[in-house]
Known about the structure:
By secondary structure, this protein is α/β, with parallel strands linked by helices. It has four domains: 3-134, N-utilizing Substance Protein B Homolog, Chain A; 146-178, no CATH class; 184-240, Sun protein, domain 3 (Alpha-Beta Plaits, 2-Layer Sandwich); 243-449, Vaccinia Virus protein VP39 (Rossmann fold). The protein is 47% helix and 14% strand. It is built from 18 helices and twelve strands. Strands 5, 6, 7, 8, 9, 10, 11 and 12 form an eight-stranded mixed sheet that branches. Helix 1 packs across helix 3 (35-50). The mean pLDDT is 96.
Amino acid sequence: MNLRRISYRILTGTLRGEMPKKLIEEAYYRLGLSHAQRAFVAEMVYGTLRWLMKLDWIIDRFLERPEKLDGKVRNVLRLGIYQMDFMGSVPDYAAINECVELVKWIFRRKPYLVKPMARLTNAVLRRYQREKGRLRFPSLDEDPVRHISINQSHPEWLVRRWVKRWGVEWTLKLCEANNSPPPITLRANALRCSRDQLVEELKGEGLDVSPGRYAPEAVRIEGHPVFERLESFKKGLFFLQDEASMLVVRALSPQVGDLVIDVCAAPGGKTTHIAEMTGNLATVIALDASGERLKLIRENCARLGITEVRIRRHDASEPAEDLLNRADRVLVDVPCSNTGVIRRHPDLKWKRSEEDIGKLADLQFRILLASAQYVRRGGVLVYSTCSLEEEENEGVIERFLEEVKGFEPESVADYLPYSAKELVTREGFMRSFPHIHGLDGFFAARLRRR
Length: 450
């Protein structure tokens, strides 16, 4: 079984728009990969995606006409240089030889291309091996945006936005955090166990775990186990979720007996958390436009023992007439640019453009406008994103409060655990950052209807 061929195929599929996690899991089950083999493929794919811009900059230094380079060869070179620079377990000579053999395999049906493409691959990688110590990257002092963009492998448009808003040092630290593998956090299922009980259960399964820092239901785990094989997973004792995402539901503070509407619910992380916090004694209506993703909510509810969730397919940008003015709580976790979760999904850096930010902000406003109509008088709405961009966060809330009467902001401080108070802004919003708090980047605002 050739793991580099598998990695190449998954990288190629990802850059064509597919989801790397899905492709890796499909390969794991279809090909019967071992845990170590899956980990190797994941490292190759996610690592190459994480450092894609830096890898391309390096590749282009060794080509006379980089724009003419065949895309398949570029992907092999990306994988090769990633192994040489970041995977200490792979000697340079092995990475080079394997990449040359991979190129031969890729072009096996075009024999006239096999030798020239293999020679090119070998020449670029061997020259890099000899000269990498002499490469000179753009200077941080002379061109900080270009320096951070290349050295930390982030799109230049995104780096420029962040530097303008937060400054060079702040942006550099954020990008460094985005390039670090994120922690794995589990949410203890309060319907079936306490956090302490989950910790003991996981330790009994041989895992290295510790309590989370901000959310009382959070457990941090070291390593990358195959969760589906754990008895604790099969028994529905936990759900994989970042602490920042857990805190959004804490800001919503659902109560027993509430009617709660989760507007963009799939895959069900926050929906199931709401049900757990209320002991299956609130009615939760989960809406999502994707029928396929609604299946994930059903599966998660079944595994976690959640019974009081009603699942409906619905376009969140249009109000559902039968739900108007009925809800005690409404959660509006909108589609966004996902710039707060780049460390988990490095492919997002290459799938977004600056134009997306304004388009998403308009969509988010429409969804918020529709969702606000579900809130009864005295009820609460929480708006949240996993974006760091002001237009998608404060900008949407400010526009909503200007155009819609009858809602007023409430500080989330009274609803978050004491340990999470540092995440509360002066305006009373929740804001988390990977490089400051070690959490995914999230925003949450709490509004009450008068």
